[in-house]
Amino acid sequence: MKTKLTAVIATATIFTFALSGCSNQSKAAKSSNRITVTYTLRQGKKNFSTKKIKLKKHAKVMTGLKKGWKVEENKGFITGIAGKKQNPKKKIYWTYTINGKWANKGAADQTVKNKDHVKFTLAKVK
């Protein structure tokens, strides 16, 4: 009787450790599919908002922007962010950089990577 009880306890212990190992692997897999991107909004030469946004891997710039702020668009172009709108008559537009370099795609097409720094600036374009 004692050997059966010992066998049952040993089996239950092994089963418990096996289940806990599986749950740790799934948490690690989920966290490796997430990235953190820092977004900064700037008007002229002054930053007015910065947020760290968690996104899925291979997310687009626009996804993180919309997750952090209210975004207004017209025909695929960003016309306003967080209530601050561009003014075409004065040639004031939203532009953006990633890690200090001008992006070569629109925000809806540009992919971000973990620890990227995206800066949107509302300023006069020459």
From TrEMBL:
Signal peptide: 1-28
Protein name (Swiss-Prot/TrEMBL): DUF4430 domain-containing protein
Listed Gene3D superfamilies: 2.170.130.30
Pfam families the UniProt entry points to: DUF4430
Keyword annotations: Signal
Positions of the Transcobalamin-like C-terminal domain: 60-123
